[in-house]
Write the structure tokens for this entry.
Amino acid sequence: MEMAHRTLTADVIAALRYWPGVIWGGQKNPPDPVDLTVLPPFFDEVLRELPWWNSDWTVRDVEAGLPLEIDSDHHGHPARFTEVSVPGTVGSHGGESLPFVAKVGFTSHQLIRFQAKIGDVVLGPAVASAGRLEPHPFATLLTGLMDVRGISVREMARESGRSMSTIHMLRSGSHNPEPLLVREIARILGMSEADVTVIAGLYDGDTR
């Protein structure tokens, strides 16, 4: 699914941006309500484009999510975009239901990121173009851990003895760390080597 080619309608954008707990001038004032019922059919439309989605399931209802303005230095993403996690439920024609959360990233009118959690299962579209490897999930976790700790790419490169291009590749998902680099990353992040090894997908289950 080509995210960059999907333009969001004004009513979908209004529903994604709606948050009843908006604070104005130190006072908590609810904004004018918007029509959240436009979101279930929008999510259904996006989910149907995933080749592994079972169309017997549809989004039944949603609640307002908290929209956040995100600054990004990720390759391929705009410098600033809005991200919101919208909770709700999905149900099958057989009457089953499961909790649902849609994580949506968008600019003023373009969808740039979509991920859905159905129960304990996370679904999302392919990121890489056809014939190319998917970015390693370690990239998102490393980026988040670095950002939370205020560790810049330059600092990580200097402390790990690697080039800045290597760190950028790790953060973009085009490169996954080898065991020696995992040890350095763990030290810099203040985490155990075992934890970072598992996050990087290098754990083989051998606990000897």
User: Anything to note?
Assistant: The first strand starts at residue 23 and ends at 24. Residues 45 and 51 are 12 Å apart (CA to CA). The two ends are 43 Å apart (CA to CA).
